[in-house]
Structure formats: structure tokens, C-alpha cells
Amino acid sequence: MKIIVLKFGGTSVGSLERIKKVAKIIATYKKKKLGVIVVPSAMSGTTNELIKKTLELSNNFDASEYDVLLSSGEQIACALIAGRLKHLGYKARSWMSWQVPILTEGPYGGSRINKINKNRILKFINSGGIPVITGFQGINSENRITTLGRGGTDASAIMLSKFFKAHECNIYTDVDGVYTTDPRNHSKAKKINKISYDEMLEMASLGAKVMQPTAVQDAKLNNINFSVKSSFIKKKGTLITGNNKAFSDKIITGITSTKNDSKVTIIGVKDKPGVAASIFKPLFLNHINVDMVVQNISLNGKETDLTFTIKSEDANKTKKLINQNKKILYRKLTCDKNVSKVSIIGVGMITTPGITYRMFQALAIKKINIMVISTSEIKISVLISNKLVKKAIAVLHKEFKLD
Ligand code: ASP
Ligand code: MG
């Protein structure tokens, strides 16, 4: 029997009305004579409520008990879905991860699934049953409950697809797919039909929160194709797949922008070996993540300017660390919080020349000044004033024929 894995996110199971709807979606697959594995998240808000409770009791709540607590939200969702399916006349059963069992390795709060015992589940599917398995969790070698990081039901769905060699994996959520850019920033944003794992990872790390990035990595490593779909409206979703299968006539697949970036410039730094390292070491030691970096060539060979970006919440700490740093000499330190990083993403740029030029030219025509540039194989990012983000997205969206 062909097996299909259906994941339902927190909003999709967020109320009893929605759970009824989810049961109907599950039934449509069952009627097609498919073996269905259901893996739900906790009802929306539940996991956050549980986290709040731990914070009330301790600011250093025990990590293993934290996982026992957080995993409970999925147990509720599983029982409600299985109960509703039975009410509709289907054979269904809930499975806690320890009953399967789903084995994990790694730390509490951030474990990864490394094995799933298939026997009992397969037997149940072959007897016509629908197993409803808790997402987001497993057990470790000490038989204790572990969780897979926030949004971890995505990873559960991908790994269930891997171990059960699923024919299809559908991630049901509250959006109907992955968009070319955030529809709240640009009204002409369009749903993407197909996107590669790498593009999806770039989009996710740049703020498009559709999928847990770890789950996308798992999918890439194991070559699992999956679709993101809406559980509210019946529409084709977005297929996430390997690079060679994702090609389309579009060179650029998506455009993202960041919030809360700050630009730090150190003016007149002594230009000698080791200076950049001495600037960034204290930032690293304080867990401050540095993103884009540029260093000017020094005209006189003595002094240079160094610019980099960080998250705005780290701005004050960064300034303090540079001020206190006795290893470096400079003339002035500036910090601009009104900046934003706009990125174009697409595997098509690997083989198409002129993309950088087209991006810069399109921005120039709209008089948008570029402060910092960074690139990867499938991404070009520019730092601009945050007042110009919407304008930049609009012009780039049009330039790369995404409208
Ligand atoms: N319930 C967990 C969370 O809120 C896992 C998930 O939603 O996928 O992070
Ligand atoms: Mg979620």
C-alpha cells in the first residue's frame, strides 16, 4: 500500500471546529485507498502556555522535565483527531512517540530523530487503520522524552516519510504555500509552485517562517520531496524538492527582507594584520551574530573603515564591547538602526550571468542607495535604508518577472 504522511500545524488543529475539518481532509486520502500516517502539532498557543509555566517556576527549569511538559500538547491533539476519526467511522488510534518508539539523539529541546520502529504502525495501517502519531518528540537512549526544537513536528513528518518510504508528504498549515515575497510587503506576491531545498533554507533563514529549517535540512539530506498546503482552503500548495527538479523559467525564486538589523561602522581603524579578528573575537565570545561585513581598502595603507551588520537587540552590547576593546585603535564608531537587508534568492543565478548587475541597476533607477553587499551561490543581499524596503521589493519583484 502506498503511504502518505500528513502533518497538521498548530493553527490547523487550533480549535475543535478545525479538528473536524482536519478529520475530513484525512478521510479524503483514506478514500483513495492510501495508507495514511497523521502527525499533528499541539493546538496553537498550547506550547507557548507550557513554556510560560516553566518560567514562572524557574528561570533554569530542568531540561528533561521541560521536554516532558512541552511534549504533552501533541498528545492532546492526537487523541482529539483519533477520536474524531473514530466518530466518523474510521479505524484510528493515537500513538505517543514512546509507544512507537521514535528514537532520538542529541540534547533535550533540540534532539534529532535517528530511528523509527515501523512494525506496529505498519501492521495497523495494513489492517486499514489510521495511526495518529505525536509530532515534535521522541525518546532518547535513556528512555526519556525528548523534543525536536520549536516547530519540530515538521521534522517528525519528514523523518516519518523517510522511514516509511512515503509516497508523499504533505505539510498542512495556515498559509497555502511559499510565496515569492511576504504578501504583507508586496501585494503582487505570488505562490511558488516548486522550490528547491536550498532556496527554501535561504528563504527560511531570512525570515520566511513556513517550515522549521532543521526539517528542510532533514528533507534535503534524505531527498524527501514534500508539499506545503493550506488546511483551510483546497488549493495546490508549494512542492519543495531537489535543485534539478525545481528549475523553472524564473531565475529568481523569491525575495526576502529582514527586520531589526543594525549597521555598525568603525571609522579609521589601524590597518594591520589581525585587526578584524580582534574586533570580532569579543562579539563571538558574547554570542553576537555578525552577518554582512565590508572593509574598505585603505588609501594611505594605514587606516581603513570596517562596516558590519548585527541584530538590533545586540547593538548596545556591541558598541560597549568595541569601546572597551583595548586591542584596537580607531577614530569613530557609528551605529545605524534604520537598515534592512533585502535578498534575491534563486538557484537559476548559478548559471545565468548579469543578475548582480540587474539587481543593482533596478535599485539605482529607483534611487535606492546600497550600503553593503553580500552574496552566496544562490543569493544576493543588499543593505538599504529600511524606509525603502517596500519600494525595493516592488522593483525587484518586477525586474525578475515575479509579478
Ligand atoms: N508544538 C511545538 C511548537 O509549538 C511543535 C510544532 O508546532 O511543530 O513548537
Ligand atoms: Mg508550529
Can you tag this structure with a few keywords?
403 residues, alpha/beta, Carbamate kinase, seven-stranded antiparallel sheet, six-stranded mixed sheet, 12 helices, 19 strands, 33% helix, globular, binds aspartic acid, binds magnesium ion
Span between termini: 42 Å
CATH hierarchy: architecture of one domain: 3-Layer(aba) Sandwich
Q: Which structural class matches the secondary elements?
A: alpha/beta
Which class of one domain in CATH terms?
Alpha Beta
The poorly predicted ranges are none
Question: What does this 3D model show about the protein?
Answer:
With 403 residues, the protein is of the alpha/beta class. The protein has a domain at 3-174: Acetylglutamate kinase-like (Carbamate kinase), CATH 3.40.1160. The protein contains twelve helices and 19 strands. The strands form five sheets. Strands 13, 14, 15, 16, 17, 18 and 19 form a seven-stranded antiparallel sheet that branches. Strands 2-1-9-11-12-10 form a six-stranded mixed sheet, sandwiched between helices. The chain binds aspartic acid (ASP) and magnesium ion.
